[in-house]
Amino acid sequence: MIQLYIPLNFLGVLYREIKQNLVDLEKMFTLLSREREVADAPGAQPLRIGANSSVRFEDVHFAYDAARPILRGLSFEIPAGQTVAVVGPSGSGKSTLARLLYRFYDVSPEGGGHISIGGQDIRSVTQASLRAAIGIVPQDTVLFNDSIGYNIAYGRPGATQDEIEAVARAARIHDFIAGLPQGYQTQVGERGLKLSGGEKQRVAIARTLLKNPPILIFDEATSALDSANERAIQAELESAAQGKTTLLIAHRLSTVVHAQQILVLEAGQVVERGTHAQLLAANGRYARMWALQRSEPSSSSPAPAPAHPM
Ligand code: ATP
């Protein structure tokens, strides 16, 4: 019994870890043969996405555990091609928004509101088409136990080596990979090379650039990137986000300055919204956060990379 329990328990932990980290789970579900919490509705249709397809959250309520509401009536729209940034204290529900848009979880069943893309409720479309339309750079990327090249190419199976290298360059990870004895064939994961938090995030950025989807979710890591890489990658992401509908979850306010709209989230509710200039002029919570971050130069300097398990 114990012998059976340990591997099952391990799979449970692995499943939760990966789910939390917003990795495409299609492959893992097949491997683990786990029942999906979120399934395609009967007769679900592929998502149709056009040049004017905006993303809308309408009065969204959500709780991981019914006793503890996390999102409490959230509404906002990301017009097609624009960026909406979300800032707010740790635990306010920012990453939860990303998990709902990618449909790892559904809004609360009773009166939980709607999330739609181009007017289609995401619960009514196939998960495969939804996930094909969205690229995620999560806070903490989980990599497959495979080559680093495979881990990037996963963004678009069938990509050529030239295409893989081009996005790796854009994500500032090519030189690191090229310097490894086995280059793009280097195995990563439990049995291979361990990457730092920042390196894993750059792999995720490369993967997303290769996928080139119309909708982007960037869940900024608190400390995974050092300042030089952060600035370089921020420029890449800004250019990658050009013309894409982007949800940017940010810890550093410097990354949100150019967003068309900034939402300040507190305890699962939007307490302020506007552009950077409007929010500074309003002299409220955002303005205070901005003043605080500017007075703490250490907050934008590199923190030690967390020792994440692969
Ligand atoms: P941070 O800035 O620290 O990344 P956040 O604003 O992104 O925080 P979320 O990750 O959305 O916050 O979490 C919101 C709340 O939901 C937190 O209190 C967190 O503990 C809780 N939470 C997150 N994931 C789960 C889960 N899988 N099960 C139960 N509670 C969860």
Brief characterization of the structure:
The chain is an alpha/beta fold and 310 residues long. The protein has helices at residues 2-20, 26-32, 94-101, 127-133, 148-153, 161-170, 174-178, 197-211, 227-241, 276-282, 285-295, and strands at 55-62, 71-78, 83-87, 114-117, 120-121, 134-137, 215-219, 245-249, 261-266, 269-274.
Q: Give unreliable regions as ranges.
A: 20-36, 298-310
| CA-CA gap between termini | 28 Å
Overall structural class, as computed from helix and strand content, comes to alpha/beta
> What overall geometry do the principal axes of the alpha carbons give?
globular
**Largest sheet, described in full?**
6 strands, mixed
β-sheet strand percentage: 15-25%
What is the string of helix and strand elements?
A: HHEEEHEEHEHHHHEHEEEHH
Overall mean pLDDT: 83
What would you report as the Rg, rounded to the nearest angstrom? 19 Å
Instruction: Count every helix, treating DSSP H or I runs of 4 or more residues as helices.
Output: 11
In the sheet with the most strands, the strands line up as 6-7-8-3-9-10
**Total strands:** 10
Helix content: 25-40%
Bound molecules: adenosine-5'-triphosphate
